[in-house]
Design goal:
Oligomer: single chain
Structural class: alpha+beta
Distance between the termini: 101 Å
Radius of gyration: 55 Å
Number of strands: 61
Shape: elongated
Number of helices: 6
Strand content: 35-45%
């Protein structure tokens, strides 16, 4: 509905915006002046106020027309109207009041409220023209209460049910019984000053209380208010059987009788662990009735204990949780590891174990399941457990939660005080209400689902990459170097900032199932040096016992660097394969060359040296048979020198020490000089420097040397010259060997295979892929050229 300058309008999605008329029994002058249509309505009634007359008009819609339903006259200027639960509240300049049956009831005086807004949590926000911004917080489920009898410098540390009332114990030793409905003290008792803080109160019967303090444990007669010592140590945890009190403490594990007459002095016995186990099973079976007035003591510090309905006793020692059965004491294990517990609670035959850092373990017979942060716990560090009326209170280092024992699920929809676990002492419940004792005071809590639970919704404001680039989307694909991410979280929730924190994890990373928590009030989560891969950031806001229903999710991936890409790996594999193939081919060629050298050596040994040795053998036989044997002896001597020379050349050519070009040239020169000089031929050597830098294979080196020897021998045997010019040059990747003499020359056309020297030179040249050229005539000198490629 809208109004402007005397004209009325209606709007809805189906028919749109349209003009209409006002149906009124009489003309209303105030409508033409200072009037306001208020946004709050009551059912189908809309409120219009007119100032300064202070008139409230009630309007409705009938047959597409605005109809006046009623008029209320209010004295004073009207700022705002608030409709809440069918109640009309009117805020004037002078005061605010509630309209009840046509009569005002003053609520607040002199606030001058101009507007009201109710947020999603149920908090009411007021704008005041005189007092600024005001807020009325919604505490319909949590109420901080005060017991006037408890002094300001004292606070409650213990609470427990006592009949229809609740018994409270304080740090200052004050013990009182209150009516939980009226919170009135109906009975009180102050312990002697030197007994310290009350740590535990347990009703044994209607008139007898077990009271443990920071210096010892006592029995208190309620009605008579008589306090007497029971035992001189502090109780950490206890269970009560029909006849005995089983106690865990820093000094050991105890069993005390309840059947002894009040004030009767019991006798004690110290037991080993196995003796304790035997005594316990005798006690369960009722075989040790003679010990009903004795107490038993196992000297091992214990943290907690629990007793199931079937009388299975579980005790948490420093080295783990033990159970006592017919085969002796046995440690409990979960997934192969010992269980270490701060607190344990037995509910019928089911055992709940609050571990040091492994969450809550639920042992039901042979089956043990784990409840951790993945199932909704604030933290895996559990400080204390307490069962109260179908709920298990789980006090953790990060706060307190409630486990519904019917389905073993966290009740996240019940609002609880925003306290850390170390500040919470005790809790007791009655009729759907809990009384929680903390270092900050007493809280009265309504144990019902909160309307505010659904309004807890956090948001991811921005993701900062490498401390400079901002991402505002719900997912991202990043480069390999964009691996420093900061998540900025926020949650529209009105509370103390240090009471709200975030539970988060990074799926896809190492330990992706492990949950972490921010510090209270912290809103930033950062991950640095992330490895390439696909990730999902997941977080929940946690406050006031709530954990929001739906998490914040951010999917992102970090690409691998190019040197880790599949294409690069394929390229590396390809290059590696080519390399291995090249090495294989090279090795194969080396083997072939070695085989060729072996065959050549074998051929040389057989053809040259073998034939020469055969000749020596023949000459020797002839020398024996004939008297004139000097000729044969001379031939034997020459052939022997020939064999020695050939063997020397063969050994030299295959020796790896002689692989360098310097060694080859030195060998050639050391052969040529004495041979030529002895024949009256003067040798001349010319070697270019570039030749020294080259390398030849074993086969080419050998063939080049043998060819050189053949050429030199030809000069000595056939040239008849006086000079021999030997030169080596490097041209066009070839070593050019030139041998020139100034002798009688040679007729190249007359060279035939019968001249084995020249024929062998051509064969060797072909085997090296070389060219061999002889130039000259039968009247002038001869020039022989051998061009050997180095590759």
């Amino acid at each position: 509905m809208a109004y402007r300058l005397g004209q009325w309008y209606l709007y809805d999605k189906e028919k749109g915006f349209r003009s209409t008329k006002l149906i009124a029994p009489a003309f209303i002058p105030a409508f033409s002046r200072n009037i306001t249509l208020h946004k709050d309505s009551k059912n189908d009634t809309i409120f219009l106020t007119a100032n300064p007359s202070g008139t409230i008009y009630k309007l409705g819609v009938e047959n597409e027309k605005v109809k006046l339903l009623g008029v209320e006259k209010v004295a004073g200027f009207i700022n705002a109207i608030q409709v809440n639960n069918d109640t009309l509240k009117v805020h004037r300049k002078e005061s605010s009041f509630e309209w009840i049956n046509g009569k005002p009831k003053t609520l607040v005086a002199s606030t001058n409220i101009s507007d009201i807004v109710v947020d999603n949590q149920g908090n009411t926000w007021y704008s005041s023209l005189t007092n600024g911004l005001l807020v009325g917080q919604n505490h319909e489920q949590i109420q901080k209460i005060f017991i006037p009898e408890i002094k300001n410098n004292d606070h409650v540390t213990v609470t427990t049910g006592f009949g229809n009332n609740v018994m409270l114990g304080s740090k200052g030793g004050y013990l009182c019984e209150i009516n939980p409905r009226t919170l009135k003290v109906v009975w009180e008792y102050l312990l002697p000053e030197d007994l310290g803080t009350i740590n535990l109160v347990h009703p044994i019967n209607k008139n007898l209380l077990l009271v443990s303090t920071s210096v010892g444990t006592y029995l208190l007669q309620h009605d008579e208010k008589i306090l007497k010592p029971f035992f001189a140590f502090i109780i950490k945890n206890y269970v009560v059987d029909s006849q005995r009190l089983i106690v865990s403490s820093a000094t050991g594990l105890y069993s005390f009788p309840f059947l002894a007459p009040y004030g009767f002095k019991t006798t004690g016995k110290i037991l080993s662990l196995n003796e304790w186990n035997d005594w316990w099973h005798q006690y369960k079976e009722g075989f040790n009735k003679d010990d009903k007035y004795s107490f038993f003591w196992y000297l091992q510090r214990s943290r907690s204990l629990a007793l199931t309905l079937e009388k299975k006793l579980f005790v948490s020692f420093m080295d783990g949780v033990y159970t006592f059965d017919n085969d002796g004491p046995k440690p409990l294990f979960y997934q192969g590891a010992r269980i270490y517990a701060n607190s344990m609670v037995a509910v019928k035959d089911k055992l709940y174990i609050g571990t040091l850092n492994n969450g809550l373990l639920v042992k039901d017979g042979a089956i043990t399941k784990k409840i951790t942060t993945s199932e909704g716990l604030f933290s895996n560090v559990i400080v204390k457990l307490k069962q109260e009326n179908g709920f298990l209170w789980i006090i953790q280092d990060k706060g307190v939660q409630i486990l519904d024992l019917q389905n073993d699920r966290i009740a996240n929809n019940i609002e609880l005080p925003q306290e850390m676990g170390g500040n919470i002492y005790d809790v007791t419940t009655w009729e759907g209400t809990a009384l929680l004792t903390t270092s900050e005071g007493l809280y009265k809590i309504q144990l019902r689902p909160s309307k505010r639970y659904s309004s807890l919704n956090s948001i991811l404001r921005v993701v900062v990459v490498n401390q400079k680039d901002s991402l505002l989307t719900t997912s991202a694909s990043l480069k390999h170097y964009q691996n420093d991410l900061q998540f900025n979280l926020s949650v529209p929730w009105y509370s103390q900032s240090n009471s709200l924190y975030f539970k988060y994890r990074l799926r896809g990373a190492a330990n992706s199932d492990q949950w972490f928590t921010t510090q209270p009030g912290e809103r930033l989560v950062r991950f640095v040096s992330l490895m390439p891969g696909s990730y999902t950031f997941e977080s929940y806001a946690v406050v006031a016992g709530f954990q929001e229903k739906n998490p914040v999710l951010f999917n992102f991936s970090i690409a691998k660097p190019w040197w880790q890409s599949p294409i690069f790996f394929a390229f590396i594999l390809f290059v590696t394969g080519i390399g291995f193939y090249a090495i294989y081919r090279m090795r194969f060629q080396q083997v072939l060359q070695l085989e060729q050298v072996r065959r050549t050596i074998s051929s040389d040994l057989h053809d040259e040296i073998g034939s020469t040795i055969s000749s020596i053998n023949i000459y020797s036989e002839l020398a024996k048979s004939e008297k004139q044997n000097e000729v044969y002896l001379k031939l034997i001597q020459e052939n022997t020198r020939d064999v020695i020379g050939k063997l020397d050349d063969l050994v030299w050519s295959i020796n790896p020490k002689n692989d360098s070009m310097n060694q080859l040239l030195a060998r050639m020169q050391s052969f040529a000089e004495p041979v030529l000089t002895g024949a009256g031929v003067h040798p001349h050597f010319s070697i270019e420097e570039d030749v020294m830098k080259q390398e030849l294979s074993l086969e080419k080196k050998r063939n080049l040397y043998l060819s050189f020897k053949e050429l030199v021998n030809n000069v000595v045997k056939h040239s008849g010259g006086k000079n021999c010019h030997i030169s080596m040059a490097f041209q066009n990747n070839k070593i050019i060997l030139t041998v020139i003499d100034d002798g009688v020359g040679i007729n190249v056309a007359a060279i035939t295979k019968e001249r084995s020297g020249m024929y062998n030179l051509k064969v060797r040249a072909e085997s090296m892929g070389s060219t061999f050229l002889v130039e000259g005539t039968d009247r002038i000198g001869t020039k022989a050229t051998l061009a050997v490629p180095i590759r």
